[in-house]
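Students often ask why we bother predicting the structure of a whole assembly rather than each chain alone. The short answer is interfaces. A chain on its own may look different once its partners are present, and contacts between molecules only exist in the joint model. In this exercise we take two input lines together and write out one structure for the complete complex. Read the inputs first and try to guess which parts will touch.
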Amino acid sequence: MSFNTDVVIPDPATGQGVYRQHAREWLQANLPDHMRSDSLNYRTPTLQESVDWETALYKAGLAGMTWPKEYGGYGLSLREHLAVNKEIGALPMPESVGSIGKELAGPIIMAVGTEEQKREFLPAILSMREHWCQGFSEPEAGSDLASLRTRAVQEGDRWVINGQKIWTSGAAKARYCLLLTRTGTVADRHRGLLMFAVPMDTPGIRVVPIKSIDGKESFAEVFFDNVTVPDTARLGAPNEGWNAAIRVLSIERATNRMYRPWRFEGELKQLVRACKSDPELSKLLQESYYQRRIGQIACEVDGLKGLIEKVVDQLMAGETIGAQGSLNKLYWSECHQAFAGLAMEMVSLVHEGSSELAKRAKAHFTNAYLFARAETLYAGVTEVQLDIIAQRIMNLPKESQS
Amino acid sequence: MSMDEDLRPEEFAEAASAAVGDVIGREFAEVASTLGGAGLLGVCAAEEDGGMGLPIAFAVPICQVAGRLRLRFPVVEQALVAKALAGTPQAAELINGERTATIAWHAEHQGMAGHAPYAADCDWILVPDGDGAALVARDAVTLTPHAELDPESPYYSVSLESAPILQRISVQRYQALREEAYLLTGAYLNGAAQGALEYTADYLAGRVQFGRPLTAKQAVRHHLARMKLLNEVSLCAIARAVETDEFDATRSYKTAWAGALTNALFVIEKAIHLNGGMGFTWEVPLHYALRDARRIEAALQGSATINAIGQNFIDAA
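Now the answer. The structure tokens for the assembled complex follow.
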């Protein structure tokens, strides 16, 4: 694989469409055919292939748009971030293998890290030299992170960490873990929470893969047994760091992977094209039932685009977005589950004699359907988002007002 | 376009709220003259007719508020006819609210047209036909009410017979009107849903059962949160529909409309449920929102529109 990384990054001030046009042209010219999920030549990319691809994306100005230049970013606005995401979504490319770093660790380090930490970690995240994993959830603390038990005890200028994390994506490939611990006891709830950047090769860390519903082992349990890190691994002070992280995460929930509705639209096109390529499946497209379902999904995708663009407008206008991210999370996850259900229903007709594109679609959408079971869980489970909307957006009282 | 560069559509929402709130419950003609006097019927109509000549986006918050406050007046139809009749004497009279107009949304066929809301109250009716649309006087046609859905405000079939044509608009102009109708009725629908949600959330916050307000119950809170989500989705989709993309490409209003219709029906029906037995009564006004939503669905053919969106997607993929 080779990519054109000798590109001139356009100045968005020269025209409102120039950055999106740049993204469109570069992506179309450089996305390898075997990485396109709608290609008959598709194969699951190796980790190195994904790293090479994402490194090239970064060099082409299509990652790190909003990060400051001094930390390796391009110093651009959310408008360019959105424009690039629209084009990333429009092509059937692999999901990022560096998303924990780019969407979670990076923004948190930017908010609470020391200057030294920012210079050490941030450029390496964007250039894909170092991967991160997320050590938040625990067996007894899923949605309720205030119940977490992993404990950090200060001993001089070091911290000793003991505990267990679960659902840690990409733990096996990660260079660092963004680890959430507590300095006191479980009774402290939200008080005393403390974050660290823990190198994954530190003695005492054990990674046990979890096989997920889609047959992959991308999750893991991670055990911390007397893991000792220097005080320089600490991200922010106890309480302070986590509170800042919560604020960052509420924005991230609304701004990361903005490409989703454009990707969902692309997937719907892929499904339709696959059906058109096959005599049996093409009959489905003439049925009123499927026309209606496709029409409904097109409307939902349109609404999701609207939600995302509103967030960009608000943030660009200097407004706070509050819990808006919960609306977005709830809507995209349920829309995509519904779409994946429709796709599964349609590709269930594919058999050995079906067209090659239809068979490719069956492989892709079966996997997408299975993976979609996770979408209403990760990044904020549905019921918690409903609680947040009721509490923070609607201010619905739980006690009598009189 | 004469729009002040600093003027924004949402600024009309405040003026619209005050004016629409002021006319709720008043006589039909008085509603027209008051809204006309407040400038709300000619926001997008031609300046030479007395309108403000603003883009259609400026009528969106007005229609949203009208839906939210359950205004019993064809505000969408009057605004669209006033705009479409640019340069005619009738346009000026519609803009200032001296006269009123509605639209028969189902085109003329063998002398009959259909789905004209508030037709018996209006002075004029715009009737689409094969050559665009014709404006006729209500007194010159025979109206047949259809009161099954809304006995207080039926919609009407219009028998044209040999009614004189007062004005005619071209096919292109009628098609533009109809496209804009999707936007404005979409805003009205979403406003109706917003009003139903607000009414219901207020009621449940004050309704104490089992020692606490019903909004303390998780099942109720989650229903309301979903209603809020869908209402917000429609608001954003409608706002998006009037914007161009990075390459100045315009967007169809039909998708936002179909989404707003689906979401509004969910919100309003759920609102009636959450109001318990009272939601089923005539006294609680949520039924007006439901009737409006179903009337608009029938007028602009919701089911067929959603299928057409699907068919267009299939064709373009």
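Check your guess against this: Chain B has a mean pLDDT of 95.
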